Sequence to fold (354 residues):
Amino acid sequence: MGVRMVQKSPEFNRGLVSAARRFALPPQGVAPDAGGKLRVQHPLVSHVGSDFVVAESDARVLHASSMRLGLMRAAGEAGARVAWVTPSSSSLTLGMLRAMRGTGGRWIVRDPEGLRFAGTGVVVSSLDDVFSGPEASTVITLAGDAEPGVPRTLFSLRIRHKPTSSLLLGGTIELLGGVLDRKPSGWGTSEPALTGWSRGGLTEFLRARVPAPTRLFVEGEGLVATTSVRRGTGAMLEETHLLLEGEALPREAERVLRRLEQQCVVVKALGSVDRGSADLTTGAGVFVAPRLLVSVAAGAPPVSPTADGPAPVSRFGTVGSGRVLTRFDAPDTSDARKSAAARLDWQSWAEDSE
Fold:
């Protein structure tokens, strides 16, 4: 997000590792009472529903701060979800979007016409309806952004690592960021990510958290990412979402995924390009589906050609792995390209409102 990071000392990194067990404790502030209703004592909460809470903010950018993450975790522990209400001028960081989706939250915009789901023109009649509907939606027409923004490349991957003593995590972000000469400079358990980038320090921290699943946030010049790691059967499972300023070429995206496959098992992957804010945040305007670059998915190669001829498809990974890599060179978004995203269970941040 354009923030220059300061390299922290080894003592600082060791302090983070020693605090890992403390981070595993559930935060307080939202809990069910004896009658099953939510009991809330949290400074961010402005409205309480039957199984959700509402947090309103006028911030220009909502990032995944420790307090916001704490509220989402506390609500989840109580069996509740969080709706975030902002003005239409606000935007969310990638980390905040991923945390919101991962906890079943929703983003609601308050503008002169009333309340609506961010990324859509679907109206919400009241705060009590943010998770219950509406069944019969009212849709308003939103004006398009005056400026289309800058090109940005998004990679989303699910990876399996061999849990060896020599395993160093963080290489996925370094390798994919190199497609556009972007380098990570900081990581942390919340945003902004202020701990100086070190794959060794990051790996040591994650090892201290195993088997608890852990999400980390990463930043650099023209780069933001989230990476989640948990223990699987005979493997360390990683899910990484990386947003870069600039437009990667399909052949470069394919090349870097093949290099990554030499280091680990790429189970699923999707690369796409959109246009948006140069600070790598997402605004509340109408969501526009990104243009696909490349996908790795299980299943047989597609046999029906697209409008521009067949997409380049090849086997991916070890023989018999049942995975294929599809590269999308054409600029349009045909049904075949959409189905590639569907095969990956790909979801946009706006889909909760559909």
In short: The radius of gyration is 21 Å. The chain has two domains: 33-129, 150-346.
